[in-house]
From TrEMBL:
<dbReference type="Pfam" id="PF01061">
    <property type="entry name" value="ABC2_membrane"/>
</dbReference>
<keyword id="KW-1133">Transmembrane helix</keyword>
<keyword id="KW-0813">Transport</keyword>
<feature type="transmembrane region" description="Helical">
    <location>
        <begin position="92"/>
        <end position="122"/>
    </location>
</feature>
<feature type="transmembrane region" description="Helical">
    <location>
        <begin position="217"/>
        <end position="238"/>
    </location>
</feature>
<feature type="transmembrane region" description="Helical">
    <location>
        <begin position="163"/>
        <end position="182"/>
    </location>
</feature>
<feature type="transmembrane region" description="Helical">
    <location>
        <begin position="20"/>
        <end position="39"/>
    </location>
</feature>
<feature type="domain" description="ABC transmembrane type-2">
    <location>
        <begin position="14"/>
        <end position="241"/>
    </location>
</feature>
<keyword id="KW-0046">Antibiotic resistance</keyword>
<keyword id="KW-0812">Transmembrane</keyword>
<protein>
    <recommendedName>
        <fullName>Transport permease protein</fullName>
    </recommendedName>
</protein>
<feature type="transmembrane region" description="Helical">
    <location>
        <begin position="128"/>
        <end position="151"/>
    </location>
</feature>
<comment type="similarity">
    <text>Belongs to the ABC-2 integral membrane protein family.</text>
</comment>
<keyword id="KW-0472">Membrane</keyword>
<keyword id="KW-1003">Cell membrane</keyword>
<dbReference type="InterPro" id="IPR013525">
    <property type="entry name" value="ABC2_TM"/>
</dbReference>
<dbReference type="InterPro" id="IPR051784">
    <property type="entry name" value="Nod_factor_ABC_transporter"/>
</dbReference>
Amino acid sequence: MIVAQALLETRMLLRHGEQLLLTVIIPTLLLVLFSTVEIVDTGAGEPVDFLAPGVLALAVLSTAFTGQAISTGFERRYGVLKRLGASPLPRWALMCAKSASVLIVEVLQIALLTAVALSLGWSPKGGVVGALAVAALLLAGTAAFSGLGLLMAGTLRAEATLAAANLVFVLLLVCGGVVVPLERFPEAAQTVLGALPVAALADGLREVLQHGAGVPWAALAVLAGWAVAGLGLAARFFRWE
């Protein structure tokens, strides 16, 4: 049941042009723009080396949180989830299927963004250990954002979810360390912003891909905490209608 629902969810995601704009085109344009035009001081080194990990984190945010929250919220409003609730598919299996479909779309996103970044001169580091660390970060980030997105979609009205999800996306884009280093913010705000899941994901990816560090355990711990909290609350409070 989970596999069948995951394939259905993937087809539905890929058919929505506005979702593809959010999940593919916007991150790609930001990567190209900020890498080629000196808008923000990203520190020493090539701008693309700082920006590419942040944009990968943004891609996970846009697909797993914003896109999923909006699409699931309107499925709930139009009665799609109510019909699924009457089927043998349990609530946890629906969440697993939606998370799996998100992972499939993210693979396509990451392949595209990686190709664009490499064409802009990106030189990722890390080796085999780094690749495994990146995979762990992306999985943990997907779980965290999926839980939060499903929690929002399963508890708020569709219109409120649409507004809140887009607002959170914009705020995290600006304040989450994606394209603007957290060091540019007041010192008092850095601790709070650094605890956000998108900041933990972006910083963890930079530790590996930009600085060649090992497994960023601190970032993984933050993402795991958000994943447990988000998925647990979504499983508890998600309403089919």
